[in-house]
Structure formats: structure tokens, C-alpha cells
């Protein structure tokens, strides 16, 4: 089991450090990571060719669940080793985290703002008198509202990192970082 350090043996790392940044030492690093909420409850285990970029995306997609993490980086990338480590950590946890089962899309896909529309926004979007241009404008406004809420919540946690959303995706009703 030396290839796969136990999840319990790894140190917790704060998702947002004292300087308001994500763990920059993980930029460009290949590895497996586990994400925990403020109560240190495990919500997601993933692996990535760039752990830092993945952590940024998860933070904006699931900001209320990204407080702590544990990471194992590898020098020689092997999908098999990454998957085996993730599977070992899930087994060690005793159950599959929701981010790896029922909530997987919320962790791995762009935010679909149509699912977050207010009843008023839904009615406005569904208005038969609105053409495609009007609907696109409505989607962009909803995306901006959701984005502002995410960024405000993260700023209240002290984040200083530059988080820019992809403007082209907003037209499609999706939010994801550039």
C-alpha cells in the first residue's frame, strides 16, 4: 500500500491560505486530491494533470464544500496509479463521497445557470415573445448574478485570487473559469 498513502496519513491543507490564495505550489502538478468542507467532511476525490486548475474550478462550482484538502502529487503520471489511489481513498472513507456519485456533475461540469433561475427569470426566459437574442441576454444576466454571488461569498472568506469566468459560456447559460 506504499504506492497509495492513506488519506488519514496526509495533512490537511487550507483551500485558501492566509494570503487569500489557493495552494500555488500545486500549479502544474499531477496528483490525486480530496476536498473537505469546513467541518472536514469529505465531499469529493479527484485526480488531475494540473491539481491547481482543478481546485480553482471546484472552488467556484462548490464554494460551500471547499475548505480543506489533502493531496498526493506524483512525478510520473499514470492514470492507473491515480485511479487506484482515488479508489483506495474512497474505500478508506467507508462510503463514496457525494461528489463522486450523486453530485458528480456539480463538481465536474460548468454551472448551468438555467437551474438557478428565479421564478421571475424563468418566466421571462420562457416568454414566447422573446427571440434568441433576448433569451441570450437573460441568460447572461442570470450568469452575472450567480457569478457575483459566488465571488462575494469567496471574498467574504478572504480570497484574493483572480477568478475570471469565461464570458462566451455565459451566453450559453454556463459558468466556468477561463
Give your account of this protein's structure.
With about 180 residues, the protein is of the alpha+beta class. The protein folds into two domains: about 5-110, GIY-YIG endonuclease, CATH 3.40.1440.10; about 110-175, no CATH class. The chain contains six helices and six strands; from the N terminus they run βββαβααβαααβ. It has helices at about 50-60, 80-95, 105-110, 120-125, 130-155, 165-170; strands spanning about 15, 30-35, 40-50, 70-75, 110, 175. Strand 2 and strand 3 form a beta hairpin. Helix 4 (about 120-125) runs antiparallel to helix 5 (about 130-155). It is elongated. The relative contact order is 0.16.
Can you describe this structure in just a few lines?
It is built from six helices and six strands, in the order βββαβααβαααβ. The protein is of the alpha+beta class. It folds into two domains: 7-108, GIY-YIG endonuclease (3-Layer(aba) Sandwich); 111-175, no CATH class.
Mean of pLDDT: 95
Q: Strand pairing plus helix content: what structural class?
A: alpha+beta
Poorly predicted parts: none
How much beta, percentage-wise? 15-25%
User: What general form does the structure show?
Assistant: elongated
CATH level 4 superfamily of the largest domain:
GIY-YIG endonuclease
Instruction: Give the termini separation.
Output: 37 Å
User: Major sheet: size, sense and barrel closure?
Assistant: 4 strands, antiparallel
In the CATH hierarchy, the third-tier topology of the largest domain is known as: GIY-YIG endonuclease
Which CATH class of the largest domain?
Alpha Beta
Order of helices and strands: EEEHEHHEHHHE
Whole-number total of structural domains = 2
Question: How many strand elements?
Answer: 6
Q: Helix tally?
A: 6
Amino acid at each position: 500500500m506504499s504506492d497509495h498513502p492513506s488519506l488519514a496519513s496526509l495533512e490537511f491543507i487550507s483551500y485558501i491560505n492566509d494570503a487569500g490564495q489557493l495552494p500555488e505550489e500545486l500549479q502544474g502538478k499531477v496528483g490525486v486530491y480530496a476536498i473537505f468542507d469546513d467541518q472536514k467532511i469529505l465531499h469529493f476525490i479527484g485526480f488531475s494533470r494540473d491539481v491547481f486548475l482543478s481546485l480553482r474550478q471546484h472552488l467556484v462550482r462548490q464554494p460551500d464544500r471547499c475548505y480543506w484538502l489533502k493531496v498526493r502529487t506524483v512525478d510520473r503520471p499514470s492514470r492507473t496509479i491515480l485511479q487506484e489511489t482515488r479508489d483506495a481513498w474512497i474505500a478508506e472513507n467507508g462510503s463514496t463521497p457525494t461528489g463522486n456519485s450523486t453530485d458528480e456533475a456539480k463538481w465536474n461540469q460548468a454551472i448551468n445557470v438555467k437551474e438557478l433561475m428565479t421564478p421571475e427569470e424563468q418566466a421571462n426566459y420562457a416568454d414566447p415573445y422573446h427571440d434568441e437574442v433576448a433569451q441570450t441576454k437573460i441568460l447572461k444576466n442570470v450568469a452575472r448574478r450567480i457569478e457575483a454571488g459566488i465571488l462575494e461569498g469567496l471574498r467574504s472568506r478572504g480570497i484574493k485570487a483572480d477568478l475570471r469566468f469565461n464570458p462566451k459560456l455565459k451566453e450559453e447559460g454556463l459558468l466556468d473559469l477561463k
